[in-house]
Design a protein that fits this description.
three-stranded antiparallel beta sheet; six-stranded antiparallel beta sheet; alpha+beta; 9 strands; single chain; Thiol Ester Dehydrase, Chain A; 32% strand
Length: 165
């Protein structure tokens, strides 16, 4: 069965959803999320399976938000979701079973309801870069199924505090 592109809802380009008077922020400090590579993270050859990186990045991002006082489950209860709308990864070198690595994330930019994150997956001593990436999230009103005009006030308050510190 084929699905026509007309039946699939399409989001506008993320550049089209950034208001001119939006809250903008950038953080310089990386949030670090340590991982020890387990068998279930790898493919048959013992190298980390490419989809595993996305899971690690999501976990790091959720913990990062938690460290700032934003509970993702509470955000969803308030009717806001933050789905990934853009994703870019660059694989620099393979990670193998048993290795210890650090998933690093930081907000690169907050522009209106568009949240951009940078990622690095490094060795613990930061001498080896394994993966780098960028992810863009957009705030969605769960009830309406549409992009929000602004972030929920509680989230915006936390981000303003983050900017000022």
């Amino acid at each position: 069965m084929s699905v026509s592109s007309q039946s699939q809802p399409q989001l506008p380009p993320t550049g089209a959803i950034t208001p001119k008077t939006a809250l903008k922020a950038t953080t310089e400090q990386w949030f670090e999320y340590p991982i020890k590579v387990q068998p279930h993270h790898t493919d048959y050859s013992g190298a980390v399976w490419h989809g595993t990186y996305l899971t690690w990045m999501e976990s790091a991002r959720v913990d990062y938000w938690q460290s700032m006082g934003i509970d993702f489950a509470e955000l969803v209860k308030l009717g806001c979701d933050l789905p990934v709308v853009e994703l870019s990864l660059r694989y620099h070198q393979a990670i193998r079973l048993g290795q210890e690595i650090i998933v690093k994330t930081r907000m690169n930019e907050i522009a209106g309801v568009r949240l951009n994150f940078d990622y690095r997956i490094d060795s613990p001593n930061a001498k080896e870069l394994y993966v780098s990436g960028k992810v863009t999230l957009v705030a969605i009103d769960l009830e309406k199924g549409k992009i929000m005009r602004q972030l929920p006030p509680a989230v915006q308050d936390i981000l303003v505090k983050l900017i000022q510190s």
